[in-house]
Amino acid sequence: MTDLQLLLKALEFASYRHRSQYRKGTAKIPYINHPIQVAALLANEGGETDIKLLSAAVLHDVIEDTVDSVEEKNKLMSEISALFGEEILALTMEVTDDKTLEKRVRKQLQIDQANHKSVSARKLKIADKISNLREIIVDPPDWWPIERIVEYLLWAEKVVEGLKGVNPELEKLFYETLAEAKKKYSV
Ligand code: ZN
Predict the structure, then answer these.
(1) Which of 28, 79, 134, 147 has a CA positioned 20 to 30 A from the CA of residue 186?
(2) Is 186 exposed, middle or buried (0-12, 13-18, 19+ CB in 10 A)?
């Protein structure tokens, strides 16, 4: 398989898995816009060319957000491994939260484990946070009170603190986007 074929296959797979989902904002943005944006940020802002990283970026929320049980999760993991290989699966798993844990615990783990992640996972997570911040600036979930937005911004800042040192362009973009979000919400 060529790099382009692999990436297109990842796009086809992820868009199917997310087909009935929307992002949290009021604009009802199709979910797939987000993983596409994360891959585009890595390639076009971060200058990343590793096709496994870009394909994992496209697939990064598939396991976290499109399964409801451990059985479904295991089935999906073997599917990803068969279609895209062990490395892409491993990278996807590195950026997937364990949903059997309480939300508070998962959030803390993202902070605690940030600097233990692989270089590729750290790049992917920074791009993921940039994409989420952009959305919070233009189209935040309307049920989020300002306190929750502020809490999210400060949490994302802590996570990226531990991820830093892997891609200066992406890091710069993260902090610019964070500053814009903080300004908008007077943090
Ligand atoms: Zn994501």
Answers:
(1) 28
(2) exposed
Q: Which of 64, 79, 97, 180 is catalytic?
A: 64
142 flagged as catalytic: no
45 is catalytic: no
Q: Ligand 1 center to residue 34 CA distance, Å? A: 7
Tell me the C-alpha to C-alpha distance, in Å, between residue 52 and each of 27, 36, 58, 60, 111. Answer: 31, 14, 10, 11, 24
CA of 3 to the centre of ligand 1 (A): 22
Calpha distance 45→183 (Å, rounded): 23
* pLDDT tens-place string over residues 38-86: 999 999 999 999 999 999 999 999 999 999 999 999 999 999 999 999 9
Tokens 């929307």 correspond to what residue?
Answer: 22
| pLDDT digits 0-9 by tens, 60-71 | 999 999 999 999
Annotated catalytic residue: which of 45, 50, 65, 97? 65
What's the CA-to-centroid distance between 61 and ligand 1, angstroms? Answer: 5
Can you tell me whether residue 8 is helix, strand or coil? Answer: helix
- Domains belonging to the chain, first-starting first, are 3-184 (1.10.3210.10)
Ligand 1 centre from 131 Cα, in Å?
8
Mean pLDDT, rounded, for 15-35: 96
CB 13 within 8 Å of CB 62: yes
Whole-model pTM over 0.90: yes
